[in-house]
Amino acid sequence: MWFVTRRRYLRDLAAERAETRRVKQVKDDFWQQRDEAMAAARTAARQFAEADATNRRLAGRVEELGKRVSALTESDPEYLADLEQQLAAEKRRADRLQARLDDAVGMPEGGPIADSGPWQPAARAPKPGVKP
Question: What's the farthest any 2 CA atoms get from each other in the chain?
Fold first, then answer.
């Protein structure tokens, strides 16, 4: 049988109580974090449900408007011709802007650059399948 001094008993008792307080604090922190996470999950679920409902409503509206625009476009050949002219003008404008950009950055008129060696470091190996 081993005897324990009063001093050692009180020291061990204080350590046990401190450990118990620490474990209770960890438990309380866990429950608080769990409650916060559940509240955030409920909020996110509600927001997703609202966004989904809005998205479904808007998808229906977009489909309805698309059908209406198609019907209007098909019913008015002059409007369709005007839209085609505007589309062709925008394509020409985009092609001109692309040509200006290519010219500004030194791209050749024939398309992509075959060899980037003049401005790339010599240590860089060419990509496989690219002919110099």
Answer: 109
